[in-house]
Structures are given as C-alpha cells and as structure tokens.
Amino acid sequence: MERGEGVFERIARLAASLPDGAEIAQRMGRAGLARDRLDPSNFAAVPTLAKGSLAAVQDAADGFRAVLPFGGLSEVSRIFRSPGGTYDFAGDGPDYWGFAAYVSAAGIGPDDIAVVALAYQGTPGAFMFDEGLQSVGAAVIPTGTMGSEAVLSLIEDLRPTVFVGTPSHLVGLIRRHEEAGGNWQATMRLRLALLAGERVTDDIREFLSERGVAAWQAYGTAEAGLIGHECDVHSGLHIRSDILVEICDPATGQPRPDGETGEVVVTVPRKVYPMLRLGTGDISAFAGGECACGRGEKRLVGILGRTDELTKVRGMFIHPRDIAALAAEVPLAKRLWVEVHREADGDDVRILVEPATGPHESAAFEPVEQLFRQRCGLRGRLVVMPQGTGKDGPFVRDLRQK
Length: 402
Ligand SMILES: [Zn+2]
Known about the structure:
Elements: H1 7-16, H2 23-30, E1 49-50, H3 54-59, H4 63-67, E2 76-82, E3 86-91, H5 100-105, E4 113-116, H6 125-135, E5 139-141, H7 148-158, E6 162-165, H8 167-179, H9 184-187, E7 192-195, H10 202-209, E8 214-221, E9 225-229, E10 237-239, E11 244-248, E12 262-268, E13 275-284, E14 299-300, E15 305-306, E16 311-313, E17 316-318, H11 320-328, E18 333-343, E19 346-355, H12 367-376, E20 381-384, E21 396-398
Parallel strand pairs: 1-13, 4-5, 4-6, 6-7, 7-8, 18-21, 19-20
Antiparallel strand pairs: 2-3, 8-9, 9-10, 10-14, 11-12, 12-13, 13-15, 16-17, 18-19
The structure holds zinc ion (ZN).
C-alpha cells in the first residue's frame, strides 16, 4: 500500500497492473472494460465473481496462475483448502488477513495471552486470528483442535485473557471447570471471547457476561480475510478500512441503495490473491447513522443469510458436491444425506444413511463420520436409518429455524 492512497486508487492501480492472463483481467476484458480506465463510475460494470465459481476458475488450465496474478507462487506463504474444492492463498507480511484492526478494536495488546481454539489444519481461520494477535504483540496459545480437558488444563495453568473459538466450546470449558468445583470468575483472568463459527445467542452472551467475559464477533471469509468487526458499542460490523464492500443484487451484481439488503460483494486490492468484486453469497445491509464509538468506517448490520446453496455450520460450508462425493464413497448406502438441526447447545450436523440391502450394523458405517470430517472440516453424527425411510432429495438439508 502506498502511503495516503485511498482504497479506490489502490483498486485502480491493481487493475492496471494485472497480467493479461489473470482471471480478473479476463473478466474485465469480457465486459469490454479497459484495465487502465477503471474508476468509481464504471466499477460496478465489472461482473462479480461468485464464490461458488472459484473452484472452477482454479480447476481451469493454468488456474493457479489466473488467481495469482503477481509474483505467482513465490509470493505465497501458505495454501489452504476450503470445502467445495477451493484453494485459498496467503501472502507474506504481517497481518495478511487484516485481523489486527479487529483485535485492536477489542483492546488486545502486548499484555494479553490468547487461546486460539480453532483448527490450524487445512483452513485459514486460526491463522487469521493468530497473525492478527501476533501483530499487536499478544502471546498466543495455539490449542487448535486439542480436546477440552487439555485446553482447560492450559487455561487453568496459564490464565489467558482472551479466548478465540466457538461459543459452544467456551461454554463447555467453563461448565467443566465449574462442575469440578472451580470458581471461574474468581480464579480465571479471561475477559474477552472473540467468537466464531456459530451464532452467538443472547443466552450465551449473558452466560459469559456473568463470568466477566465480553463476547465479540467479526465477519470474514477465507478469500478476503477480515471484512468487518464489532467495536465496543456492539452495533454492527465496521468494515475494514483497506477493502471495498458493496451490497448488491445477487442476480445482477449491481449495488443496491444504502440500507437495503443484498449480497456482500468484496474487493481486496492486495498483491497475492487479489479479489475484485467477489460475490460472497452472504446477505447483509449497511447500517444507518454514525456509530457511537466514533469510528468513521461504514458498518454492516450483520450477516442475515446465504444467497446460494452452501450451508454454513460452525463457520464452515457444507457443499452438496462434497456430500454427493461422500455418498459415492459409501457403496453400502442406498441414500446418504446431511441434515443440520439447531439444538440448544449449537448446530447439530447429522449424516443420515439408509442401507442399500438388508440390515447393517451401524459399525459398517462408522468410517462415514471420519470421511465427512475430512471433506467438510466439520464433525457430523452418523444416524443409520431403517430401510425404506429415506427420501430422494437434496444432499444437504438445512433444518435450522431461520
Ligand atoms: Zn463502533
């Protein structure tokens, strides 16, 4: 980033410097736009790229070069894989994902110790927080997907001030400590929970607040990194200052008037894996008025839903294509589908299997949970159905009340 350069200047500079083979360059070319003529008046003429199309772009011949327009792989520090078959690329440099703005807004600094209890394997969520925390000087305990008992023991020994993870995980840790006779609030130092992956209900906020823990939330994607974050007023999500967010009609890609709902379309002008008008599939709206915190950035009201068929559970997407592939790996199943239910303690993912022939012991299907986890990065619970009870239908059925 050049000093003093605005977001749009950086976007225009990015567009002008793209190699001809870059996916963004080709997309602009198809729309008849000259790359050195991009300005705010014609920007919305650049067709959006649907998040769901990224896998196809990457699958295409020479796809990686098309999504990595600049230094190619030499500029890349890490490669992640998202459900649905997309690869996500991170570049060198501190705070590539933009999470420092979030952790700073939450008041985290060099005297903080943070547990990061998100998966470090395969997907970028844990690294987004980890690098943001490192960039403000906080110490990180990378517990990743360690079991609850081990995580609790680390918390009891090291007394961290910040927890990063899912709300159900944190509530479970606190309950475990209290059931063993501990007085959480009197002995632990935890004051902040940066929660991800699940809806944060009022009950959870209250449970944590009673124990001196403030619950914070942000919004980001594996392609863009941080998009918006809460402030201490907790009224919407302030948009990161070095990216451009539009709220668009999902069908046309055209911006909608302020205050109306639409798809979050994000532009991230950076050297590695730049994003120009990426349609996230998330639905939101700009919040009206100024925030009482005094920050100037525009806010989103929060994420109101999904525009496409992807089903989001605990921060991960279940793609029907992944479940179709899973079903093909289980020949003993006549039908296999996934249902997502909302339970009191979080979202419940069930993998339902109807055996093909004769009664089968559940044990025959036990590998299904592991296969599902490998594909989707999520835990699911196997449910073997009696024969004849399955229905033909979609591979993924989201039965949570909206
Ligand atoms: Zn604010």
